[in-house]
Amino acid sequence: xxxxxxxxxxxTAVLSIKxxxxxxxxxxxxxxxxxxxxxxxxxxxxxxVPPGLVKKMYGxxxxxxxxxxxxxxxxxKYIKDNNINMxxxxxxxxxxxxxxxxxxxxxFEFNFEIGMAPKFELxxxxxxxxxxxxxxxxxxxxLNEELENLRKRFGKIENPENTPVIDTDVIVVxxxxxxxxxxxxxxxxxxxxxxxxxxxxxxxxxxVGLNAGGTAKGNIFELLKNKTNEExxxxxxxxxxxxxxxxxxxxxxxxxxxxxxxxxEINQELFDQVFGPEAVDxxxxxRNKLRExxxxxxxxxxxxxxxxxxxxxxxxxxxxxxxxxFLKRWIKHSNEKPVTDEQIAxxxxxxxxxxxxxxxxxKLSKDNNITVSPEEIKERTRQQLFAQYGQYFGGMDVxxxxxxxxxxxxxxxxxxxxxxxxxxxxxxxxxIKEQVSIEEKTVTLEEFKNLNKQETV
Length: 457
Known about the structure:
By secondary structure, the chain is an alpha+beta fold. It has three domains: 2-116, Trigger factor ribosome-binding domain (Alpha-Beta Plaits), CATH 3.30.70.1050; 156-262, Roll (Chitinase A, domain 3), CATH 3.10.50.40; 272-319 and 368-456, no CATH class. It is 48% helix and 18% strand. It has 13 helices and twelve strands. The strands form three sheets. Strands 6, 7, 8, 9, 10 and 11 form a six-stranded antiparallel sheet that branches. Strands 1-2-4-3 form a four-stranded antiparallel sheet, with helices on both faces. Helix 8 packs across helix 9 and helix 10 (374-389) crosses helix 11 (398-409). The protein is extended and about 100 Å long. It starts with a strand and ends with a helix. The model has no long low-confidence stretch (mean pLDDT 90).
């Protein structure tokens, strides 16, 4: 058995594997011998089919299978022994079709094209790159908006009687199909809730001011703003396929109940609900602590942006040549469903960028011994589960439950890979931050939002 490599263009090579008959014949004979024990054929006892007949019927298939095993073993061994950082998988040469026949054994030669990763250095980390860490100013407008949101969140829902509908109410209504201005017998009906601020301007004029029991009539598809007919039929009438054939669009709306949220008072009860019992004891202290919490949230958001920006800068500052022609052929060859050259060309840019990113991450991790252990993956899983379900753990053995749930999640390959990448990215970003200069810039919330918009354009 002999493997030789011939360099190709653009980070490719052709591996030629010569297989002598002596390399595979004993394996084929052993495979046929074992197969004979399992063959069940009419006219013969199981395992007693003549060897010649087994060879005639199954020999070529067994030969092809054993040659494939030998080829894979030799390819893997050669790539490992020569420390080849391969991209994709080896592609058999298109014109390398050989006659594999159990009746004409001999020597074989197979050729495979491989794509190789480029060698590169991460100069980005040695050039004293500057990263921008934004500091969002928590002004009084932001503080007051958050305060009003909390007042609504911890407010009370009331059902006022003999009080007309106002803009901020949610109304419980009955919708009934009309015919000649009257409720149609056997027509479409529905009971649902509607936030008044979701009504169209025309509908709002008819409904705001009604008391419970009041009615309004109109076209059902003109009731809500910014909704298609299909969306209206689904959400208000629970009809996935629109109105039935022959149904009218004119409906009567009857206000059955008014739900009105009364914002919470700014007092000790609200302070305790938001921050816990006696954490703050005055409106001034409450507003100061609320400002601190908002600032923490903003700091986390801007810190995430810093990490994202640094990784993007690292990628942009590290141009890598790729064996693009080979990769396009490999994508087409390995895809389960047929793909056209046009589809590959359209999506290749994103694929190549992701591949370059992965090569950089792998080198950065390897060169600096940045690893993720199974224990870290499990701990992150436990944290995620607690954040999502912790409020339901009252009276339970939290450690035991989290451990059992985490063990279940860790059996899912997709979850493990996703969590591994999350933890690794965090470690990589932390490492990069230590290598570069961080410049803090104070911005308003609007300015920060505009920065993010510019990046998505």
